[in-house]
């Protein structure tokens, strides 16, 4: 699993470390905040387009070959971004990295479901969560130090080095735990997946710069319509690109929605916070990165604890605890101003980073444990697709709210850009708090005994396969 762990770590490192570099990129390339956010949204757009195809690809291509291809894409993308002299080239390399991450993340969770027994799924996901959440621990801090000492290009050089390590580890150690059944390829599903997810995320992301222009409305309408066709086709053809039957299982669907909302909340806060430290509180990128470190360490430790505690306590109580902590942390962020002490930021950040992994890891373990192993690859892909697509949309919404808050401050007669940024950030924090409330609301519908549900679903699935074989 080492190559996959390193690859997943790199994917989240890339997803979370770029936020702190956005102000520098805006200054160097002369682009607006709405354009610069494509370094985050474009990355997640590439992930969202690739992810729905991964479950199907794993049925055709050996997992080891697929992972090596993914990390090669990441390596090439990192080199292109490091050498970019224009923003479009930089974004192109960034999106190529997203292709690699989109393949590695669901493959890791699908492999876990095939390697570990059901009684250890929670602990295994806890280890995976520790690996993935280690990236937000070191990402912003390391990125801030590299920007201060060298430049933002050093971040992409680091990505290239880690990608090379993942390629070596995968080639040396990884085996293929998923069998290839080679079902027929449905070309309309592939095209609908790319067009639907691409148009939806692109349309939402362009609202920040273009408002509800005819182009934006057209992209949103096309995205929703094509995705509706995509979902209908997956449920009616014999060999779907992505088996959406997993969403018919309530024990999977409810925690999957909770994971998606908590992930979108995480990305919204991680997009706003580093920028608020720099644009609102006037700190350097190096200092801002260092201030992100304590809460990142807490997040990684809580991710591991949440996975281990799930096997003992189940998801509901852990989600309630995590939701309460995250809400308190988000409320503390609302109190931060341009002259607030650093201690207030540290307290708010640590509290919210205690809560989020207890929500996210517990719900993710509950979702994956509820599925029969035959559906684990599709379930992992559905779960990761929902996270990345909704996460991209959530980041775009946070960007729009940030701009809306700044505009309201200016219209009201405000003239301090730092205070305007803080006011705008609060609009985004309210959005994050609303997502936390949604998670808590859905937690009331969680089934307490997920393992029994999984056993009954798997028994039914095997019974159908035996009848078909007979």
From TrEMBL:
It comes from the Bacteria. Gene3D superfamilies: MFS general substrate transporter like domains (1.20.1250.20), Multidrug resistance protein D (1.20.1720.10). GO terms for cellular component: plasma membrane. Residues 1-451 form the Major facilitator superfamily (MFS) profile domain. Keywords: Cell membrane, Membrane, Transmembrane, Transmembrane helix, Transport. One of its GO terms (molecular function) is transmembrane transporter activity. It holds the Pfam family MFS_1. It is a multi-pass membrane protein. It is found in: Cell membrane. Its main location: membrane. The chain crosses the membrane at residues 37-58, 65-90, 96-116, 128-149, 155-175, 187-208, 214-232, 244-273, 285-306, 318-336, 342-359, 389-407, 427-446. This is Drug:proton antiporter.
């Amino acid at each position: 699993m080492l190559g996959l762990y390193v690859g997943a770590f790199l994917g989240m490192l890339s997803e979370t470390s770029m936020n702190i570099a956005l102000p520098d990129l805006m200054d160097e390339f002369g682009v607006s905040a709405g354009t610069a956010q494509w370094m985050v949204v474009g990355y997640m757009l590439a992930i969202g387009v690739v992810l729905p195809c991964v479950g199907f690809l794993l049925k055709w291509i050996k997992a080891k070959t697929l992972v090596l291809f993914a990390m090669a894409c990441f390596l090439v993308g990192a080199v292109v971004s490091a050498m970019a002299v224009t923003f479009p080239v930089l974004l192109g390399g960034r999106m190529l990295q997203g292709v690699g991450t989109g393949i590695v993340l669901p493959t890791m969770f699908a492999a876990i479901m095939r390697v570990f027994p059901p009684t250890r799924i929670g602990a295994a996901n806890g280890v995976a969560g520790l690996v993935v959440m280690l990236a937000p621990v070191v990402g912003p801090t390391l990125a801030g130090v590299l920007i201060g000492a060298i430049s933002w290009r050093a971040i992409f050089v680091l990505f290239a080095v880690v990608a090379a390590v993942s390629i070596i580890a995968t080639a040396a150690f990884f085996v293929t735990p998923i069998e290839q059944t080679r079902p027929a390829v449905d070309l309309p599903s592939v095209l609908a997946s790319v067009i639907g997810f691409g148009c939806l995320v692109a349309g939402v992301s362009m609202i920040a710069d273009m408002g509800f222009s005819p182009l934006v409305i057209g992209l949103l309408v096309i995205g929703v319509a094509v995705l509706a066709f995509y979902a209908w086709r997956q449920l009616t053809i014999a060999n779907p690109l992505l088996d959406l039957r997993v969403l018919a299982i309530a024990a999977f669907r409810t925690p999957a929605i909770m994971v998606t909302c908590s992930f979108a909340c995480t990305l919204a806060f991680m997009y706003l916070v580093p920028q608020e430290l720099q644009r609102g509180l006037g700190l350097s990128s190096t200092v801002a990165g260092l201030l992100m470190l304590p809460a990142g360490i807490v997040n990684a430790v809580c991710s591991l604890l949440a996975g281990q505690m799930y096997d003992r306590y189940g998801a509901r109580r852990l989600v309630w605890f995590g939701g309460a902590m995250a809400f308190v942390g988000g409320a503390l962020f609302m109190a931060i101003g341009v002259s607030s002490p650093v201690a207030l930021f540290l307290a708010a950040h640590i509290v919210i980073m205690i809560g989020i992994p207890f929500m996210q890891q517990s719900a993710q373990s509950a979702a994956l444990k509820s599925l029969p192993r035959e559906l684990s690859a599709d379930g992992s892909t559905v779960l990761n697709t929902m996270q990345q697509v909704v996460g991209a949309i959530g980041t775009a919404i946070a960007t729009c709210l940030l701009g809306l808050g700044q505009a309201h401050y200016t219209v009201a007669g405000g003239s301090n850009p730092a205070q305007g940024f803080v006011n705008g950030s609060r609009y985004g924090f309210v959005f994050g708090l609303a997502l936390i409330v949604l998670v808590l609301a859905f937690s009331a519908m969680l089934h307490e005994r997920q393992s029994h549900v999984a056993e009954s679903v798997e028994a039914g699935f095997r019974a159908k396969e035996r009848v078909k074989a007979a």
